[in-house]
Amino acid sequence: MAEAYELFSQEKGKLLKQINDFRETVKHYNLPFLSLPSTTSKDTALDVFINMNTNSKPLTQYDIVVAEIEGLQDTSLHELQEKLNIKFPAISRYFNLSYLILYTSALMQEKAPNKVGIWNMDKKLVVNNWDRMVEGLSRMAAFMEMNRIYDEDRLPTNAVLSVIAALFTKIPKEGDLAGQANILLKKYLWSSFFTDRYENSAASRAFADYISLLGVLLGREKPNSESKYSESDIPVLNRSLFPLSDEEELLSVSWPKRVSIRGRGILAVANYFGAIDFADGLPVSPQNVAQREYHHIFPDALIQQANKHLEDSINSTVALNCALISGRTNRTIGKKDPLDYLRDRYNWANESIIHQRLSSHLIPVSELQAGTYESPDDMLRAEKIKTDYEKFLARRANLIAKAVNILANGEEPNLAEVYREF
């Protein structure tokens, strides 16, 4: 009995020592905290909380909203999102699905698609409106595909996505209103790509455009006015405020692989007519767009050769000199003109194939076939390359600008109309 008591006392002593050690650790532990006034707004407090979180996987705004929604309703937003992604995988090709859900849900409640709008929206309505929101997002993805824009890397600006998705939740699938709405959304889409509307303050401008677009579609009266919304009240469609890019502006737009609204816009227009691959003859599609490469139409090697002898160098990496095709660029150009180079490289057998494949990218054929560069005088040869290249860019700018004006007017352009000389 004495031995058992002695063993108990030893174990008790060890335990008390551990407890005292823990007490000292907790007593002297520096626990960081930030005290906010009781008047602090909810969105500010949550923003501070997110920014202070330093875990290996920091919380996002989406995580906070998910937690709040699931606290209000016995619903797993993550599970709903997973089901949405399985049913409509095309949606996530265009942007982060979590944020598309939040931005679209905010606009459906007529809140701005930004942090403040997301914090302030009614979280119960996010779940209540879920099926309508899913339908809007799926119709948005189909609309983007109909306009030959297939993924985020080729999308000029993601600001349009939630606007279009939220509007589709208000638009019937069939009937006159559906047809009118599709024309209006087409005007909105292409105007967004070829004006300065979304170069900055994209979220607030998207919200303003959404309210005006919704007003037109639903026949609403403008605030503090008895008159109804009209297209002139939609900022992005107001050409006096936001004119469409002209040919001169298009000439200076940078390479579309960069994050550039106008650069990707030019590529989007070029893809609109099918963008038939030079080698396999297949049009661009959701299945092959990610495998295509950004190709210099007027060969980069030819331009670099000319730049060695020119006082004012010429830039080969402008958007108008780009086509999206498969295969690597062959840098062995020699003294061939671009059309001969392309004909030899792809074994184009007849003129109809040449015209079909080049015109599907809005590439002017005659400006590529300006004559050979056989001059023994390097300076004369360089000057001719420069002259021919500038003529090519000017003509392609003309073709792109024509197509842009037709698309931004909500119409369906055809190649004959775009190529027609006036």
Question: What can you tell me about this protein's structure?
Answer:
The radius of gyration is 30 Å and the shape is extended. 53% of the residues lie in helices and 2% in strands. It is mainly alpha-helical and 422 residues long. It has 18 helices and 2 strands. The longest helix has 30 residues, at 378-407. It has helices at 2-28, 42-52, 61-72, 77-87, 97-108, 115-120, 123-128, 130-146, 159-168, 176-193, 202-218, 247-251, 261-272, 300-307, 338-346, 351-359, 378-407, 415-419; strands spanning 293-296, 322-325. The protein has a two-stranded antiparallel ribbon with strand order 1-2.
Q: Notable features of this structure?
A:
mainly alpha, 18 helices, 422 residues
Would you kindly provide a brief summary of this structure?
By secondary structure, the chain is mainly alpha-helical.
Mean pLDDT: 88
**Strand share of the residues?**
under 5%
Residue windows where pLDDT falls under 50 for at least 5 positions: none
What does the largest sheet look like? 2 strands, antiparallel
Helical content class? 40-55%
Structural class: mainly alpha
> Which strand order do you get reading across the main beta sheet?
1-2
Number of helices: 18
Report the order of strands and helices. Answer: HHHHHHHHHHHHHEHEHHHH
What is the CA-atom radius of gyration, in angstroms?
A: 30 Å
Work out the number of β strands.
2
- Assembly state of the chains shown: single chain
Q: N-to-C terminal Cα separation, in Å?
A: 114 Å
**What sort of overall outline do the alpha carbons produce when their principal axes are compared?**
extended
